[in-house]
Amino acid sequence: RVDPSRCGADVFKLLREYDGHGRSFDIIVLDPPKFASSQKDVKTASRGYKDLNMQALHLLRSGGFLATFSCSGRIDLDLFQGNDHQKNFLFRNDGNLKFTEVGEQSGVAV
Asked: Which of 35, 62, 68, 70 could disulfide-link 45, Cβ–Cβ 3.0 to 4.6 Å?
């Protein structure tokens, strides 16, 4: 179990700590703040998203689920596209806890 009081931690450090202690999870949800508030931040933000997702993948048990979110509209969708021959999913938040799968129409559900 994860202690919810840890939610205020630096997630990059926390995920490395979990990895160092051999922790693993069936479900991981990543919903970081905006990393790219301007075009000049895109390169650094892309590295941050990649690092965050790679750390999470190391903690994910076989058959587990990773849900990752980004509110940085300047980041290309291909950064989040998997290359494992599994279908990718992309959901748009329509509000009121309703989500629409838009992976196929956006070209990332390959």
From this structure: 35
